[in-house]
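Re-run requested by the PI after the first attempt was lost when the workstation crashed. Everything re-entered from the original request form. Ligand of interest: zinc ion.
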Amino acid sequence: MRSGDAPRPTARRVFVLARGGEPLMPCHPARARELLERGRAVVARQAPFTIRLKHRTRADSTVDGVQLRLDPGSRATGIAITDERQQVGPTGRTHLARRGLITIELRHRGRQIHIGMMRRAGYRRRRRSANLRYRAPRHDNRRRPNGWLAPSQRHRVDSTTSLISRLCRYAPVVAIHVEHAAFDTAAVTGGIPPGGPRSPGATCAGFEIREFLLAAWEKSCAYCGAEGVPLNIEHVRPRSGGGSDRLSNLVLACVTCNQAKGTSSIEEFLADRPARLERVIAQLRRPLHDMATMNSTRLTLVKALGTIGVPVHTWSSGRTHWNRRLMGLPKSHTLDALATGVIDHERGDTLVRVPTQVLTGDLVAAEVPRGRWAGRWVGRIAVRSNGQHRITTLTCRFDVSHRNLRLLQRADGYAYEITPEIQLSGQRGAAYSGSTLKGGDPGNV
Ligand SMILES: [Zn+2]
């Protein structure tokens, strides 16, 4: 298989443990089914699906090891487990073939946490002033410790690290590769160089700004939210109208929005979408603050991953984009994770397999067979001593008797759901039916 060919979709692999519980190489689900049917293995976990062999020990098995690849994002983190094999190409040269075994998208709850904390602050503020004598606020004399992260950020680091350390128990992980882009805040305060980041006079600052804008706007259009389309750097206040090149005047916009906006002001352009207008303005007001937060969260994550005991390698997001583009993969958190790290395209290294299903997790699942709220509900559960537990789903919240609840898997802080991988572009036709793919990644910014 040559570099540039589309990777083949493949079934998501199953984690395999040896008799003693040590991780072995993940296997094909058909193989797992066979082992289970013959009684040579038992189910160790439902999600992520893991089997334990009854007789085979780790010493009996060949374990080549797998790599764990991560694309940390603010809304979701893509995780991919891959193995790499030396292959001899048609020309007789050896190259590395990377195979995607299992992909996971971890969805973060930063926003819900932020809302919860604001609500709590409101209660406390009321309590302080409502029916008590006046006491001066005490927070002025408290300092935040070094390395403090806001709870919504801290949660990203903690939930990611905890999931990764678990995956290291289910699979023989020999290396962790993280996409780690730190922004040089000092370099970008001057704005983009004249002529744009791709001009001959482009400096490192231009690339930092491009990377920052991609991260800040989550690789989507600031005006319509389109993803996976070419994005341009857009001056909110046009340069012809005296707008500056500073970050507080720059957003990413798709070609359609860029042209539609023309020289009109952002207030005019988004007049019929007040919520979007508010969000864009709020984001523009705090670009450097965001950049600093992203830096500290990523640094903390890399440090935390270092404590797991597996070597951690960090890679720039530019390299991931480059890899993903050469392999013709669309944008998703998990595909980004698969493309993280070194792929020597010159040598013919390539990604040969992509799992067709993604395991995602955020909510705890429960089943309610009877009652006013009859049906299947998926949500978080708050356990109460009277046996009427409160379930919170995406749309509603109600109490259910413990008798109507069925435990799917004992709570491990995550809930699991399987979704299909974003459709791949395809030289290989039918298997992909890749009609939803739009023009590649935002690489032309
Ligand atoms: Zn747009």
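Saved to the shared folder this time. Residues 221, 223-224, 226, 253-254, 256-257 surround zinc ion (CB under 6 Å).
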